[in-house]
Design goal:
Elements lengths: L5 H17 L2 E4 H4 L5 H10 L1 H4 L10 E6 L8 E6 L5 E2 L2 E7 L1 E2 L2 E2 L4 E6 L2 E9 L2 E6 L15
Antiparallel strand pairs: 1-9, 2-3, 3-5, 4-5, 5-8, 6-7, 9-10
Amino acid sequence: MRQFFPWVVMAASCCACNAYAATTRTINFSKEGIQPTAAQNLAIRRAAAADIKEFDSPEKDSWHVVSVDLNDDGHSDLLIQYTDRGLCGALGCGGAIVMATATGFVTHATSLPNFVYLMNVLGTKHHGTHDLRFDDAKYIVKWDGKEYR
């Protein structure tokens, strides 16, 4: 008869949890936001034009930007959280990702759900791109090859 040692199972699962946590980067947009370059702001305006039309003040660069390589291709992608009242509400503010390419940035942004301040870039990946979790939500958004779902 096999003996069951619950503390071994518990220790193994704790190690798995710690390894998962160790591969997570938590980003606080209000604290880690960078001052985008003129080229980055132009890329954001071009790629996120549909969202920016919804701003109360579309002429202003109303966003926080953090630069992270989401697909480990050596090019830093632009993670954006909007700060304009037109795209903010009780559940935080919307956002977008402008993926970097070898020659610049894509021309169409990937939309993100509303969130307050935190984005977790997880160690797990789908289609070569890191999974994301927002604020303290349990739901994880995964890259499907074209966008996060």
